[in-house]
Design a protein that fits this description.
It is built from six helices and five strands; from the N terminus they run ββαααβααββα. By secondary structure, it is an alpha+beta fold. Helix 4 crosses helix 5. Keywords: DNA-binding, Transcription, Transcription regulation.
């Protein structure tokens, strides 16, 4: 059962003494995400909501690979892998480098690797 009583749609009121003082709450409010950044982060995470993109990232977290190698490892068509890679490139999660006729993909930077590893570790811990 909630400790909040809704007095009106604009006003929430605690029904028990609350341990945080108003000044502290004001300080906390300074650290809240701005709506625009929150929107950008939500869009970023929504792109990661596709299992095939995550499977691609799991391979690229290990090493740089070309489209044909990714397709074989994932048992997907090259066109399906390319489509997912275009999306991952658009949000700057992966980079590519052409070598002759082949294009090799890798994670864009260590932040992406750290994010991937942190989520994977978190899920392993809660299972």
């Amino acid at each position: 059962m909630s400790n909040l009583k809704i007095a009106s749609t604009d006003d929430l009121e605690c029904d028990i003494p609350h341990p945080l003082e108003t000044e502290h709450l004001a300080e906390l409010g300074q650290g809240v995400l701005e709506p625009e950044k929150a929107q950008r982060m939500a869009e970023f995470f929504s792109f990661l909501g596709d299992p095939n993109r995550l499977r691609i990232l799991s391979l690229l977290a290990q090493e740089e690979l070309c489209v044909c190698d990714l397709a074989i490892a994932l048992t997907m068509s090259e066109s399906a892998v390319s489509h997912q890679l275009r999306t991952l490139r658009a949000i700057r999660l992966v980079r590519y480098e052409k070598r002759g006729r082949k294009v090799f993909y890798r994670l864009a930077d260590h932040h992406i690797l750290n994010l991937y590893q942190a989520v994977a570790e978190h899920l392993d811990e809660i299972d």
